[in-house]
């Protein structure tokens, strides 16, 4: 009977670290409409837990084990995921603006329909990551690898993607407007579905080997001070 109750979702509760610690063990838990604002969940093992419409504003999940977690419709501005293991996690909808994912493990992590404006992914370890309908405006992604990924409706306007790996990446209805792209690699990428306006090219050959449209070519040459007629 205890195991039966342990499998029931917890809804509408305000939870602190001590409450979460009592829930750990046995089956993964589901939290719905719970308030975890500023909660210290650092280092906890929450593998496969599910969070739906929860408030995680300024919560601390640094170093937590979060493999296979699901975060659906949550609000987590300024949440701290630094050093956490988010492999195979799913972020579906929700507002995660200015969250910290520094040094996080993001293997096969999926972000769909989410707001990540100003998020910090510095030194995150990402492989096979999936972004779709995501706002990454002014996000920090230096050295990030998008290699061979298909980016759909991803807004990287003003983002720091210096030394990023975009080789063989396909952009569909995306924006790199005024992004910082110095040192990035675009060989084999298809940029025809990306807004490249306002890019300041420090290397005229930055997009060598990439596919762009005639209109984009004119834009890029215009940024170099050339008149295209």
UniProtKB/TrEMBL annotation:
Gene3D superfamilies: E3 ubiquitin-protein ligase SopA
SUPFAM superfamilies per the UniProt record, alphabetical: Pentapeptide repeat-like
InterPro entries xref list: 5peptide_repeat (IPR001646), Pentapeptide-BTB/POZ_domain (IPR051082)
Protein name: Pentapeptide repeat protein
Organism, as annotated: Sphingobium indicum BiD32
